[in-house]
């Protein structure tokens, strides 16, 4: 071969090798970009408070050593002082929304097409503890979902201002158009959710399922996991709905009045429910289809039922459970007892009631002892409850509190974010 020709062939060979490796380089870079592009959304120790000293992977596996370490850490005065965040902090930090969302690592885009095509609507009823609210919002936030926040009319002004400041940073998070003064066990608690339902229903035609929350709930599933579970329900609803226990009958048999912010039982018997609809017992928290919400807002039978419930005790425990068994309501079940659903079997909410705690060898116990502390006979979860919580199918659990056990929320939010990002790049966890 002539020297010139040989040089030419060598040049072409080098060129093609070069092009191939350039191509490979771009492919690899794109892949790492995608992974890196998600990695910056991972919660790291840099954005954790004093909880970052904990070993979350040990805690999630229920390891005694890791749990013991949590106990030692959380009793120190320094720790207790450092976990408090004043309401004013949120007002200051949200002056620059872009910075706030970056710093707090709010998801800036849907993590998958599947989630984008299945938006969720949330009603969040809040009255205090802004830090709990912000941690919860961050955990469930996705740009394709929509969030209505009801702040109690009698909340502290700094709480209302802080929550208003946070919501103003997101186009898809808004304050309810009509806030009410919530009364314990009274009708206004239901009205708060109803007002959010109406706002969410008219704000967007796209969302598929409705979930209501309070400030002390926290998710147990990623948004993708929720979307998949909800899609598999094929339009049915998931909430507690059972025969009314004998010791609760008085709550719906007598007329009640709200006097100075307290619900009082009168001696007047109530009339039967409209159309003699069978009343069922359940809880305040529901996971329901868009069609269910449409019925609540437009079905005249339900309108009459709502009016009938206004003077009962703790109507949130009965109203949703009853609507869930009305013929023709989308996603509902027949009123027959065979379709009764307990809180343990519904997806809506996992709660540990103090009187149901115990050991597995006792037939009266429903779940193991609370590892945190109790508020009004409900467990406020501790780090030691996490392993048990994550064994369940429920979408959300109640109660969590950043002030009494911040480690439980810290490890849970870190676990969920890591899982969501891993799902997004197609890794298995
Ligand atoms: C945390 O717990 C995991 C799981 O048991 C263990 O493998 C790891 O060594 C622990 N890490 C530290 C820093 O103790």
TrEMBL record:
GO terms for molecular function: beta-1,3-galactosyl-O-glycosyl-glycoprotein beta-1,6-N-acetylglucosaminyltransferase activity. InterPro entries: Glyco_trans_14. The keyword Transmembrane helix applies. The chain crosses the membrane at residues 12-28. Pfam families: Branch. GO terms for cellular component: Golgi membrane. Its main location: Golgi. It is a single-pass type II membrane protein. It comes from the Eukaryota. Pathway: Protein modification; protein glycosylation. It is found in: Golgi apparatus membrane. Keywords: Glycoprotein, Glycosyltransferase, Membrane, Signal-anchor, Transferase, Transmembrane, Transmembrane helix. PANTHER family: BETA-1,3-GALACTOSYL-O-GLYCOSYL-GLYCOPROTEIN BETA-1,6-N-ACETYLGLUCOSAMINYLTRANSFERASE (PTHR19297:SF96), GLYCOSYLTRANSFERASE 14 FAMILY MEMBER (PTHR19297). Belongs to the glycosyltransferase 14 family. This is Beta-1,3-galactosyl-O-glycosyl-glycoprotein beta-1,6-N-acetylglucosaminyltransferase-like. It comes from Austrofundulus limnaeus.
